[in-house]
Amino acid sequence: MEFSGTVTSITRESIVPSVSDTILKGNVFLLRILGKSKSWRSGYRMDVPVKYQKSTTGGIVEVGGTLDTTRNETRIKMSFEPQRIHKPIVVDDIEQAVNKGDAQVVELLATEADSIAQDLVDDLGGYLYTGTGATGLSFDSILNAADDSTNYSTYGAQARGTYTSLKGYYAASIGALALADLRTLSNTVTIGSKKPSLLVTTPSIWSAYEALLTPTVRAGYQVNGYPQIGRTGMAPSQQALKGDIGFDGLWWRGALMAKDDKCTSQKLFAVNEDTFSFYGLDLSGVKGYEKINVTGTKVVDGPQGMPIPKGFNYSGLLRGVNQPAVVGHLYYVGNFICTNPRYQGQLTGITD
């Protein structure tokens, strides 16, 4: 309906007091990794000691025999450096001024900060699947952690050809997904009681797996609903999450399988979340950085409304030197680090 100037000249439009995101995609894997993030306590580099071979010394000693005192080298150190990704929040002075008072519906600065924070998380989520670990240029990722040296011959600055225990499982040219592919993947990256806790893939491949389980889906999930994957675990239903955000999940050998919009096409990753984490570096100890990220009266939330994860930093508002505006900088500082690559795996070339 088109209203005349008789009404529009004296009547204000109604604005929904929130901004709807019509661009960004869901990233359940990043949500879980950041929800369990760990602290990068100090140091310009993080070294991870790993045992790459068994000691061959010692053995049975007969009466009056000689003890073997030969020393074997059995350990090396993987090395990782922190990376930093950034986005600015820029609000002009006059924009802030006209956004005040009775005419304000949504707080400009807080809304802009939330929007930019979402964009920053989206960028970081991309690196989670594509990071190459190049020093100073890229985060590490599940992509180079779950590799057998086919694409990444080194990991943590160590050569996988020399230290073969640093290889993950990598299978190419899978074609149509079959349960046999998942069995081989799971068997290879399961050692003792340690096994994958999460499998992530594209929505189309997730649906293909669902089709393989059709009888089970009909018998269970269609009655009770899909299990809900949250940032720290899973719940049997959406109601059990009690306000937390959840994503539909399926099961494979006790591991949750999630569909992730940002997962690379034709890939499925098996992740052991005990050995793959985001280590975040807190900049709040540096003068000017704020530990609690507040803009105006609103807190800048972490991804999907979760508590602020480790490594998420805010510079506070700064006065621009060459423009009539305030500028704030949002950062994620740290890296995705796998302490034991042999527990990670990937299937590639899946055609659904």
Structural write-up:
A hairpin with a 2-residue loop joins strand 15 and strand 16. This protein has an eight-stranded mixed beta sheet with strand order 7-19-13-8-12-11-9-10. It is flat. It is an alpha+beta fold. About 5% of the residues have low confidence. The two termini are 47 Å apart.
Blueprint of the fold:
Blueprint: H1 5-8, H2 28-35, E1 38-39, E2 46-51, E3 75-80, E4 83-92, H3 93-98, H4 108-130, H5 142-145, E5 154-155, E6 158-159, E7 169-171, H6 179-189, E8 198-201, H7 203-212, H8 214-224, E9 228-229, E10 234-235, E11 247-252, E12 255-259, E13 267-271, E14 276-280, E15 294-295, E16 298-299, E17 312-319, E18 325-338, E19 345-348
Parallel strand pairs: 1-14, 7-19, 8-12
Antiparallel strand pairs: 2-3, 4-18, 5-6, 8-13, 9-10, 9-11, 11-12, 13-19, 14-18, 15-16, 17-18
The major beta sheet can be summarized as:
8 strands, mixed
Count of helical stretches: 8
Structural class assignment: alpha+beta
The unreliable regions are: 237-245, 292-301
Query: Which percent bin holds the helix content?
Result: 10-25%
Shape: flat
For the secondary structure, the number of strands is 19
Rg (CA only): 25 Å
In terms of DSSP E residues, the strand content is 25-35%
What would you say about this model in short?
By secondary structure, this protein is α+β, with helices and mostly antiparallel strands. The protein is built from 8 helices and 19 strands. The radius of gyration is 25 Å and the shape is flat.
